[in-house]
Amino acid sequence: MVLIVGSGRQRSQMDMALGAGDGVQVICSDIDTDADVDLFCDGHDLPFINGSFDAVVTTVVLEHVLYPERVAAEIHRVLKPGGFLYSEMPFMQQVHEGAYDFTRYSLSGHRRLFNGFSELESGMVAGPATTLVWSIENFVLAFVSRPKLRLVVKALVRLAFAWLKHIDRFLEKRPEAMDGASCTYFLGAKMNGRVTDDEIIACYVGAKHLSHV
Is 2-127+181-194 assigned to CATH 3.40.50.150? Predict the structure, then answer.
């Protein structure tokens, strides 16, 4: 049993990625009435009993909720002991959902949000090159106000600079690139207790290693 929190219109992609129907039941949920889901629900109050799922997936969703810590706690609650979580969250990205875009997390912040999970793997989904493309696009759009013209300009900028994103392939294993990552991922398993802040700090991957007393 796999729960997708904030699935939007990704049902077919999620079903394919998770092997739905091959011994895997995927439950898609979202709050957006335009989403393709099994049920509409708020991630702040998931309508399931404790320990209902073997895994939960949430991709680029928690930046749009008011209280990410509460949603993280709900995800932890509905997972079985040892159940898996996969999360993707943006870090170096401009606003992309208008007024419904609230929060950004570094990889360390991503880990701390899910400190009720032992880390199996984490890293970069998109790196500094993608961050650069985002920045160029939004720099140009800062001079354009008409909605239809913004769509045209955005398309032209992406056509001209999208190739830059491929540079991330050469940066994804470089610790120095993590500090400028556009998006990070976290894969963990539900645990009893919490990972301490000292342990999270010790797991930092990046170029700027500081020591605070």
Answer: yes
